[in-house]
Specification:
- The structure is a single chain.
- This protein is mainly α.
- Helices cover 62% and strands 5% of the residues.
- The chain has a two-stranded antiparallel ribbon with strand order 1-2.
- The chain is elongated, with a radius of gyration of 22 Å.
């Protein structure tokens, strides 16, 4: 049963990362290296309609340990059922998707706006990156001339 509990903890961490990762990345950009693949995997599983591999593993480990498997999936069992919500309800499903998508849309939108503003990917340098910007006739450009002024 210990392994099943450890898988449940890892699963909970994956859910928290999925929901909050894009917002955390606003302060800690390296989090995107974790968030993007986790979010893509969770999205793929949901789009295909496949059972979550972590839930399947947890249920298998529970049975091997003599425990009872649960129905309704991870979120249904640990988050929704205790609140009296039916995971199969279309309204609850819509709510789950809204709660998962909203912080990601906001976070990635703000990250994209920041990248556009700072010129990341266009060779214009980035504030706080250590690359000095030189004011030229064509606008701000990276260069060492800024150090001489």
């Amino acid at each position: 049963m210990l392994w099943a509990h450890l898988v449940a903890v890892v699963h909970a961490l994956a859910v928290v990362l999925m929901v909050t990762g894009a917002l955390v990345a606003l302060r800690r950009p390296w989090v995107l290296l974790l968030h993007a693949p986790v979010a893509a995997a969770i999205l793929a599983v949901n789009l295909v309609g496949a059972p979550c591999p972590l839930t399947t593993l947890e249920l298998s480990l529970r049975e091997r340990g003599g425990g009872e498997p649960y129905g309704g999936g991870f979120l249904g069992h640990y988050a929704l059922a205790p609140l009296g919500l039916d995971v199969g309800s279309p309204a609850v499903q819509a709510g789950v998707y809204v709660v998962a998508a909203t912080p990601n849309v906001v976070g990635y939108g703000l990250l994209a706006a920041r990248a556009a503003r700072d010129g990341v990917g266009r060779g214009r340098g980035r504030r706080g990156s250590g690359v000095p910007l030189v004011d030229t006739a064509r606008g701000l450009r990276p260069g060492v001339g800024a150090l001489r002024r």
